[in-house]
Amino acid sequence: MAPLGSLTDPAVFPWLCLAVGLCVGSFLNVVIYRLPKIMQRDWEVQCAELRGEQPPAQEPFNLALPRSRCPACAQPITALQNIPVASYIALRGKCAACGVRISPRYPLVEALSGLASAYAAWHFAFGLSAFAAMAFLWCMIALAFIDFDTQLLPDSITLPLVWAGLLLNLAGTYADLGSAVIGACAGYLSLWCVYWGFRIVTGKEGIGFGDFKLLAAIGAWLGWQMLPLVVLASSLVGAIVGISLMLFAKHGRNVPIPFGPYLAVAGVIALFWGGPLTHAYLNLL
Fold first, then answer.
1. Cβ atoms within 10 Å, residue 44
2. Is the separation of the CB atoms in 56 and 145 below 8 Å?
3. Which residues are CB-neighbours of 213 under 8 A, at least 6 positions away?
4. Could you tell me the CA-to-CA distances from 145 to 60, 66, 119, 219 in Å, in that order?
5. C-alpha separations of 283 from 101, 236, 276 in Å
6. What does the radius of gyration of the chain's CA atoms come to, in whole angstroms?
């Protein structure tokens, strides 16, 4: 077993976190696929109970059960077929049993998780900041892909993220506690005001409640000082992507576009480069 000192070495630590991040990315694929379905099942059970009906018996379905399997042929995926990125390449992107194409999203999520973890390890070096940053990044990846698929930002991720940010900043990990508390409140209330302003003017809901909680979580982690950058960056990226979709993908103007992925990207930008970008912006003003 390698001594602890060698694992914390700046030349070793990022590579170790790359391997861990790849494995976590494999689990994130499970979360992204299953968590919305778990939420849907829970809602159906609650609705049946409110109607006074007996919920139908269903196969156990959670983040651990059943085992991962091919959605086309239901063949269980073996351990060798579940090695992050490498298995996808070895299988040439196809199911070993039925030959159906496997979505490239799976290795993409794994690679994103691995590379983001390695960069966090290199950027912050061994310590609480690096480990917390990796957890933050994993949550951002999961939330971005879930919102992209379903336009949902699960409370089971966003709300613990708010509390985790506040607890971390008791020790001033990324911001002082006062800035974190104000960041959580300001993050939620800023989008809450946008929501009601848009609804009063247009009679429509322009943004989801999950976005309020996600911005509150980012504010709790990074402090209120980063919120202008996060809002500006997410709006800019969202506008560029939205216009591109309408021009090149014939995306209808009335079709909703999830805002969570852009908030997540902006949160990652603020985590790593928020300080220099804010100072540069203020200097321009």
1. 13
2. no
3. 153, 155, 158, 159, 162, 188
4. 24, 22, 20, 21
5. 51, 20, 10
6. 21
| Count of residues making up the chain | 285
Q: What is the pLDDT along the chain (285 residues), one digit of tens a residue?
A: 555 557 778 889 999 999 999 999 999 999 999 999 999 999 988 888 888 888 777 788 888 888 888 878 888 888 888 899 999 999 899 988 888 999 999 999 999 999 999 999 999 999 999 999 999 999 999 999 999 999 999 999 999 999 999 999 999 999 999 999 999 999 999 999 988 998 898 888 878 899 999 999 999 999 999 999 999 999 888 888 777 777 776 666 666 788 999 999 999 999 999 989 888 877 776
pTM of the model: 0.93
